[in-house]
Amino acid sequence: LPAGGASLRLCSTRVAQEGINKPVVDRIIRVDHAGEYGANRIYAGQMAVLGRSSVGPIIQQMWNQEKDHLKKFNELMVAYRVRPTVLLPFWNVAGFVLGAGSALLGKKGAMACTVAVEESISEHYNNQIRTLIEEDPEKYKELLQVIKQFRDDEQEHHDIGLEHDAEATPAYSVLKTAIQLGCKAAIFLSERI
Fold first, then answer.
1. Could you give the angle at the alpha carbon of 111 between the alpha carbons of 103 and 184, nearest 5°?
2. Residues 33 and 74: beta-carbon distance below 8 Å
3. Which of 54, 59, 84, 154 is the least crowded, having the fewest Cβ atoms under 10 Å away?
């Protein structure tokens, strides 16, 4: 025992969970972890195809931010004791295929994918922010800060995609709609499974 008889307590990465709405927090962290995991796989696929092209450094920059997002959600999964979605192996493959497939359409195709995904994710994060504010903004202060920052990063990626001619992709609106339907399905499933 240290001087004075006080006991040593090891630091914990767990968050005090008194008073939180555990089902809501679990659902938010699980789906956001899955989304950031999928985003990492999308950018990995894009880099596999376009990494050495003129747009490679831009894709890498966005991917680096997504890696930071995933790292933070990995930490939050442990801190809040949230299990990951069982669909991660599927998102691993689906994300890479989406990224590589869109990149095979060229720079514009990759950027169209980025716009579609990041618009969906920004909207998703906004819905979560509203939910947590309705619950109790003070109680969820840390989680709100994380989600707001990541939402802003995703919006920046969206804007980068537009700046790099995403809308000039052949059949842009069809591609964007298909990708966003896939995102909605992924969000729905990852929240629950």
1. 95
2. yes
3. 54
* DSSP label at residue 14: P
User: pTM of this prediction?
Assistant: 0.90
- At 8, which amino acid appears? L
Where in the chain are the domains?
22-191
Count CB neighbours of 109 within 10 A.
23
Say if residues 33 and 84 touch (Cβ distance below 8 Å): yes
d(CA 130, CA 132): 6
Q: Which parts of the chain sit beneath pLDDT 70?
A: 1-17
> Tens digits of per-residue pLDDT, 64-112?
999 999 999 999 999 999 999 999 999 999 999 999 999 999 999 999 9
At 35, the amino acid letter reads G
Q: Are 99 and 113 in contact (CB under 8 A)?
A: yes
- Scanning the structure block, which residue is given the tokens 């969000």? 187
Q: Which amino acid, 50?
A: L
Question: Domain 22-191 - what CATH class?
Answer: mainly alpha
Evaluate whether 53 touches 106 at the Cβ level (below 8 Å): no
Q: Are 103 and 45 in contact (CB under 8 A)?
A: yes
